[in-house]
Amino acid sequence: MSSSTPETSAPGTTSAQDGSTPLPEPAPGGKRRVVFVVGSGRSGTSTFSGTLQTLGMHVPQPEVAADETNPRGFGEPRWVVDLHNDLLARVNVQVSDARPSAWFETGKQSTNEALRARIHEWLEQQFAEGGDELVIKDPRLAWYLGLWRSAALRAGATCSHVTMLRPVTEVVGSKQKYYAKRFGEVNRVAAWVNMMLHTERSTRGSLRAFVRYADMLDDWTVPVHDIGERFDLHAVRSATAKDIRKVHQFIDPTLRRVQLTWDDVPVPPRLRELADGTWNALDALATPGGDTPERHAELDELRQRFTEAYEEAEAMSQSTAIAAQRAGAATERERLGGGQGAPAPGAPAEGGRLADKVPHSVRAMVPAGARRRVRAALNRQR
């Protein structure tokens, strides 16, 4: 089997990772279920979501259309993807963001009561149209799990979480092959570590399972049947032979088209060590009985070490950040005045500090910690 023994919150409550007051669990015997499929993009989340959909669970419509990067479909509701894209853009967070501080930015949004009400209203509509068992999947979902859990519980639904696991080198290789080359291997590996460690923390204390992508391709019936029993999913438990044949036809083992090792993904030794440690700890969670306090402590330590490593990298790259800000400021001066009468590079801008005159679009590209240090450095040049 490829799932872990779930941990549960105290009776009658649910964990609120975003710091809000815990909400009551649905009354015993409630039929509504929401399965949140999370994990890094290119890790098999679409395969798992599509499997539950094929067995009869409802993926809200319309869906993101299949393409050459995912010919069997994404299993993602378009409304959810559009919502998350809008929210992430507001706080300048990428879908796969390596900054530990990015979780703080999205966490602030999750306390928005109007946003919770909006999602709750949408979920009520989906239950009315698609039945009592929903599948919500989107690589951006992990940034807003607290928000979605609150909305689902208001709808009287039991929430569960499935985190897909695929070796980081394969995830990064797949992204490099099918996505734009805007980010390099180092950034993608760091973003994977950041995403997976914080996703694990945000689902801790909730009904959850970890599933290896390789296990889904080898024999999907084992992890899916186990999850169907533990999550009490009617569509899985009552699946017919015809339904099972459809899933066999849906899951294509050849779709694991990228199988790379560290020889193919060169990264600094320290980052590789953190990535390997993260993978080993998460992989253990996918083993029956592996979801233990000792494993949680190991993952907490890894998360702290990664945060420290990232902050050191920010500090070391401060000169690059300052150079990028100066280049952006020069471009903005050129755009506004053709360079005539513009202050010299490094000089305080008229009417305010130079750091405040740098275009917001440029400042927002710099991580928060480095941004504070850059502002201080620029203002000292006055």
Q: How do the helices and strands line up, and which of them pair or pack?
A:
Layout: E1 33-38, H1 45-54, H2 78-90, H3 102-109, H4 113-130, E2 133-137, H5 145-154, E3 158-165, H6 168-178, H7 185-203, E4 208-212, H8 213-219, H9 221-230, H10 234-237, H11 241-250, H12 269-285, H13 293-316, H14 318-337, H15 354-357, H16 360-363, H17 368-380
Parallel strand pairs: 1-2, 1-3, 3-4
Helix pairs in contact: 1-11, 4-5, 6-7, 7-12, 7-13, 12-13
Under CATH at level 1, the class of the largest domain stands as Alpha Beta
Kindly report the oligomeric state of this protein.
single chain
Task: Please state the second-level CATH architecture of the largest domain.
Answer: 3-Layer(aba) Sandwich
The helix-and-strand class reads alpha/beta
Largest sheet: 4 strands, parallel
Tally the structural domains.
Answer: 2
Task: Give the spatial strand order of the biggest sheet.
Answer: 2-1-3-4
Spatial extent as radius of gyration: 23 Å
Q: How large is the share of residues in beta strands? A: 5-15%
Number of helices: 17
Residue windows where pLDDT falls under 50 for at least 5 positions:
1-29, 340-366, 377-382
Distance between the termini: 63 Å
Annotated CATH topology of the largest domain: Rossmann fold
Succession of helices and strands:
EHHHHEHEHHEHHHHHHHHHH
What percentage of residues falls in helices of 4 or more residues? 40-55%
Shape: globular
Number of strands: 4
